[in-house]
Design a protein that fits this description.
The protein is of the alpha/beta class. The chain has six helices and five strands. It has a five-stranded parallel sheet with strand order 2-1-3-5-4, with helices on both faces. The protein is globular and about 45 Å long. 38% of the residues are buried.
Length: 149
């Protein structure tokens, strides 16, 4: 699985920590940016880059997005066809988002969670498979229909 990660200035420090975690767990991660701290950068730019990459291969790619509140990057990600992004606030929610909703982008709020909690959320999110239960497949199909109409 290929993981794309991106963050604005408010998420930059957390992004760098999560990249180290991904490397330590032997995940293949691509940093979409920003590659340096820039207080004038804008989260939509990085959210769009990550989302575009993930949407090109929904089976083999996932994304991680980080901004101050997490809401901005989550909103942008969910504008892309096939993207199901979750703004996770704890590991249990991240797990449910994967098992029930087959989320493919994880959005995080750098201003509201610790590095330790973010790593826990990310670890659970990456390790949790989609359950494949019929009721969840049916709901995702309804989402896809809405998206295509």
């Amino acid at each position: 699985m290929l993981i794309y990660i991106g963050a604005d200035h408010r998420g930059f420090k957390l992004k760098e920590s999560l990249k180290n975690f991904l490397k330590s767990q032997e995940y293949e991660a691509v940093d979409i940016g920003n590659d340096k701290y820039d207080e004038n950068d804008d989260y939509p730019d990085f959210a769009a880059l990550v989302s575009r990459q993930v949407s090109q291969d929904l089976i083999n790619r996932r994304g991680i997005l980080i901004c101050g509140s997490g809401a901005g990057v989550d909103i942008v990600a969910n504008k892309f066809k096939g993207i199901r992004s979750v703004l996770a606030i704890n590991a249990e929610q991240a797990q449910k988002s994967r098992s029930d909703d087959d989320t493919n982008i994880l959005s995080l709020a750098a201003d509201f969670i610790s590095e330790e909690e973010a790593i826990k959320i990310l670890d659970v999110w990456l390790k949790t498979p989609f359950s494949g239960e019929e009721n969840y497949k049916r709901r995702i199909a309804k989402i896809n229909k809405i998206e295509n109409d």
